[in-house]
Design goal:
Layout: E1 2-3, E2 6-10, H1 16-28, E3 36-40, H2 46-49, H3 52-59, E4 62-66, H4 67-74, E5 92-94, E6 99-102, E7 105-111, E8 120-128, E9 131-138, H5 147-166, E10 169-174, H6 182-189, H7 203-226
Parallel strand pairs: 2-3, 3-4, 4-5, 9-10
Antiparallel strand pairs: 1-2, 6-7, 7-8, 8-9
Helix pairs in contact: 5-7
InterPro entries: MBL_Glyoxalase_II, Metallo-B-lactamas, RibonucZ/Hydroxyglut_hydro
Protein name: Metallo-beta-lactamase L1
GO molecular function, one term: metal ion binding
């Protein structure tokens, strides 16, 4: 997010090499990486925090993560938390309903545990063609394995849906691009000429449908676990 007082980055990919890809991407878009001020980590898996410390050290950016997932990150060393991804320090812990403001932009934090113990999601403004729209990023796409975590995921989704409704969210993004055909959307957005044909714009009904589909997925997963 480009704000009037610098850049907010959500997540940082796997490692230092990926962090450099982020830097290269910023420059390709005409952004100055030196303007990076805040790095918001959605959850404590290596593909989200792995490049954060490199970016923090290079640009003196502040890192934000939930306290629960900071502990989880530092005490999990397998799977997505393997040796590839450097652990990061955290400057401020994120909490439910917290608002992070930089310049003219405010990001609302929504606690959505389930995919990880302290996963968070975000609601924030985006601008195009002189207009502002509210966007949401579901921070933990990917249904967990245990029944306890599945039930928690379901509860978090309902909590997040209420935030989306209350904030008139019409744009959808996810922390896992593979989960919603995000890579194709990124290619298509370059050619969009209006908000209506921007693939990330769903409108309020589209957001409701998207969240309902996620709800059906977790309901089916819970039902299959009971069988």
């Amino acid at each position: 997010m480009q704000t009037s007082d610098g850049i907010i980055l959500i997540d940082s990919m796997w490692d230092n090499n990926d962090a450099q890809l982020i830097i290269d991407g910023m420059e390709k878009l005409g952004l100055n990486p030196q303007d990076l001020k805040y790095i918001l980590i959605s959850h404590g898996h290596g593909d989200h925090y792995g490049g954060a410390q490199y970016l923090k050290d290079k640009y003196n950016a502040k890192i934000f993560m939930s306290n629960t997932d900071f502990y989880y990150m530092n005490n999990t060393f397998d799977g997505a938390n393997g040796s590839r991804s450097p652990k990061c320090t955290v400057d401020e812990f994120l909490t439910d309903g917290q608002q992070i403001t930089l310049g003219d932009t405010t990001v609302t934090v929504v606690s959505t545990p389930g995919h990880s113990p302290g996963c968070v999601s975000f609601i924030f403004p985006v601008k195009t063609q002189g207009k502002t729209y509210m966007a949401a990023q579901w921070g933990g796409t990917g249904i967990p394995k245990s029944m306890e975590n599945k039930v928690q995921y379901k509860s978090s989704l309902e909590h997040f849906a209420q935030y989306c409704h209350d904030n008139n969210v019409v744009v959808e993004t996810t922390a896992h691009l593979f989960a919603d055909n995000g890579y194709a959307k990124l290619n298509n957005v370059v050619n969009s000429t209006s908000i209506e044909n921007n693939p990330f714009y769903l409108g309020q009904k589209g957001i409701d449908d998207y969240l309902n589909n996620l709800s059906l997925e977790i309901d089916n997963a819970i039902a299959n676990s009971i069988k």
